[in-house]
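User: Could you go from structure to sequence for me? I need the amino acid at each position, not a summary. Structure tokens:
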């Protein structure tokens, strides 16, 4: 069984790797993308609201990782990477670089996908834990 230190190191490395990857991909698509200065698929809020919520989420994730010897490091890595990537873009570009447009769904980016996937993984884990009790 791996120690928590190794797991936390992998979480940090995974998060940093995904953040860099997302920023590079977003930069490639920057010229053909839209800048979304709103929050949650452009439906509510503004850039400042998004940054404040992002900071709160990062603090919450950090607290959960430090407090628990969690088996959710992969989901937390994805969530952290998505939140950090979008936050960096908000500071640099004044909004998030969105470049994926599918039918009627508001334009989004890979960081948004990581956030959604991580939340689904966490919800499935919680549901699985409640079912097994």
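Assistant: Here is the amino acid at each position, in order:
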């Amino acid at each position: 069984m791996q120690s928590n230190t190794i797991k936390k190191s992998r979480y940090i490395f995974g998060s940093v790797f995904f953040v860099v990857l997302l920023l590079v991909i977003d930069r490639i698509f920057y010229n053909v993308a839209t800048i979304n200065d709103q929050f949650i698929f452009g439906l509510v809020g503004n850039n400042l609201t998004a940054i404040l919520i992002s900071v709160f989420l990062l603090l919450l994730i950090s607290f959960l990782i430090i407090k628990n010897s969690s088996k959710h490091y992969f989901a937390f890595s994805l969530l952290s990477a998505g939140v950090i990537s979008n936050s960096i873009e908000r500071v640099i570009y004044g909004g998030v670089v969105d470049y994926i447009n599918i039918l009627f769904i508001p334009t989004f980016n890979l960081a948004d996908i990581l956030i959604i996937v991580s939340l689904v993984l966490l919800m499935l884990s919680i549901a699985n834990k409640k079912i097994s009790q």
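One structural detail worth keeping in mind: The CA atoms of residues 27 and 97 lie 8 Å apart.
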